[in-house]
Structures are given as C-alpha cells and as structure tokens.
Amino acid sequence: MMDTARDPWQALAGERPFLLRLARLQLGSQADAEDAVQDTLVGAARGWNGYAGRATLRSWLTGILRHKIVDLIRSRRPGPIAQTPASTFDGEAEFDGLFTPDGAWHPDTFVDTMCGATLAAQRQLLDIVELCMRRLPKDTARLFLMREYLGMELKEIEEQCMLTNANLRVVLYRARMRLRECTVRSWGEPE
Amino acid sequence: MTDATTPITCRDTTWLVSSARDQPLTPQQARQLAAHLAGCAACQVASRQFAQLFAQLDTLLARETKPDDAT
Predict the structure, then answer these.
(1) Half-sphere exposure at residue B35, Cβ-oriented, CA atoms within 13 angstroms
(2) pTM of the prediction?
(3) CATH number at residue A69
C-alpha cells in the first residue's frame, strides 16, 4: 500500500477523524472515544513495522480500535442504554409506508436502485454507508455497532444493555431497514 | 397441519434477511424465504441491496479481516 511509504504519523493522523466518529457513535462519551482512538494510534505506531500494508490502513486501525472499544464496554457495568427515547422500541410502524397493508413492497415507495451503476468508487460507497449510519438515532447506532462492528452476540448485548431479545432484534431490524433506505437512495443519485 | 412453506409477505422477508445476519434461520424460515424470493421480483432486488449493504458494512467496519490481524 502507498500508505507505508508515507510518514507513519502523518498516515495515522489522516485516519483519526474516521476512527473518532466511529468510537463516538459506539461509546457515546467524547472523552472515552478520544482515549480509545489515542490508544489505537499509539499502538499502531508501535506496531507499524508489523503492519506492512497487509490490509488498508483504515481497516487495520478499525480492527485495533474494535479491541479497545470491546474492552472498554466489557469493563463497564451493565446498565440500560443512556437515553432511551420512547420511539426506540415502538416496533416497526415507521416502515408502514414502505409496504402495502398486506405486506408487499409498496410500488410507490420501493427504490430498486442497485449500487455500482453510478457510483464506481469503493471509497465513495463506504462514505455513503458511514453517512447513513451517522443519521441513526444515537442508541440505535450504539446497539447496531455492538452487533455489526464489535461482533458481540445478541445475548451479551441484551445483558450489557438490559434489553429483551425482542427489543434488541427490533432495534437491529430498524437500523438495517433505515440503512437500506438511506443507501439505496444515494445509489440512485448521479455522481 | 403446519405446511412446511406457509407463504410469507415481503415485509416478513425483510425481517428474515435482517435476522439471518445475527443468527442462522431455522430450516422452516429458510424454506419460507427461498420460496418467497423465487416468486417475488421486488424481494430479489431488495435482498441483493441488503447483501450489497452488508458487504459494504463488513468492509467499512473491517469485519472481513480476521480480528487477530490487529495487535
């Protein structure tokens, strides 16, 4: 990778904003996010010679950050997620507009765009996903990332966040439905 | 009494596609999903969109690299 040819610190610093956004989405606290990212970058600088461009720099760092965040979350005492807006758990009513009363995709609202046709660059596609993820409600994003980023099993998330299995599954469903809606709409936009 | 492939709706299909990301579907769910997809063009599109989204999430969140690659 070209990254290795650059000054390591400069290359690492370039990924800091992304890592910080990810950590903040996941941890809620700005201070904890700064700490986790700082640890990640220091660790990466120390292990720079072992990196050797195996993965993209960003995915290597994202993997390291994952460990820091998992450790932090597991060290926290279980507790209900900070702010639970009533709407977080009110089921799937928000998607009623996407379906007909008998549960078929509604032809007026169904977006059939596939990605790849208009947006070729992988980085651009990932930027869209990240942007859509940042639009999720805070608690939804946290729970979604515990599953999708940290790879925690449903059971552990339920225990850590004092949620029922049914509630957690609805939150994850809603997050994925929203992300699909958000990304397919962006795929349809001209470059 | 219970038909192995009781028909499901498109809306049910989205729920199964999401669930499958967290835990394996039961054989009955897998059959229902396959049977619905076979006859529903919109759900074929939607499930490909989900697959593309999930693949991009894996890349963005570095899920395709082995966790042990990181120090």
Answers:
(1) 14
(2) 0.87
(3) 1.10.1740
